[in-house]
Amino acid sequence: MSKFKNYLKKYWITFLILALIVAGYAVIANKRLLDPFLFPSTHDINKSFADNGKTMFINMISSFILLFPSLFIAVVISLLIGVPIGLNKRLREILLPIVYGFSVIPSLLLSPFLLLLAPSLLAASRIMIIYNVIWPTCFGVIYGIATIDKNYLDTADTLEIKGLKRLFHVIMPASLPTILSGFVSSLRGSFTVLVFAEMYGAKYGMGYFVKKNADFGLFSNVWSGFIFLVVVLVIVLRIFEAIKDRALRWTMD
């Protein structure tokens, strides 16, 4: 009970702002102050939730099946690229300009090529998400390792900690804050790519649900799908933030 009270105390202003936004939309939509075709009443949106709840849940599962394996692959590739570059100054001098060059190319810009070259639309969507996540995470790995406090390394030298033990017990834990910050930042962008990929290259998914109903002009479904998508993504981001905070609890007061 005390945790719930602390939660309300921490976020009551957030809930108040959300309530004001919902109330404002209700007034505008229900009084038909804007085009009712594009801005359906709250009754129509609630009915859409009731009618399409199961469908939206199935689409959410489809989105997760696409998203989470792609995130895992992206993290593995980021570590394989970033760890050697972070550990070796000469490699950083040689490869960082190349990494920068690839990182500034938006993954959405690659979509026309991927749709033509990838073996399937699913593969093209996965590649887009992976490409979008790799570079911020990779930079987090590189700079997290390259900027480790020298005291950690001096202590490891004093204790004669070398090789893989040095990497996994000293270097990676010390660089973890920067690595996780890069990953969580890239995670936000990955949702944009996910929705884009589902809108144009999928038969299921939260983005697909919104796009399909928009094409048919069913804007009560568009709004319910949009709200559902936002709520799900905020929850997922909060879960990852909580995991990050727990993993880095040794760095926090």
How would you characterize this protein structure?
The chain is mostly helical. The protein is built from nine helices and no strands. The chain has helices spanning 2-30, 42-87, 89-103, 111-117, 121-146, 150-158, 163-201, 206-215, 219-247. Helix 2 packs antiparallel against helix 3 (89-103), helix 2 (42-87) packs across helix 5 and helix 2 packs antiparallel against helix 7 (163-201). The longest helix has 46 residues, at 42-87.
CA radius of gyration: 22 Å
Amino- and carboxy-terminal Cα gap: 23 Å
The percentage of residues in β strands lies in under 5%
The level of helicity is over 70%
Most strands sheet: none
Global mean pLDDT: 84
Number of helices: 9
Order of helices and strands: HHHHHHHHH
Helix/strand/pairing category: mainly alpha
Secondary structure tally: strands: 0
Low-confidence stretches: none
Please state the overall shape, judged from the principal axes of the Cα atoms: globular
| Oligomer kind | single chain
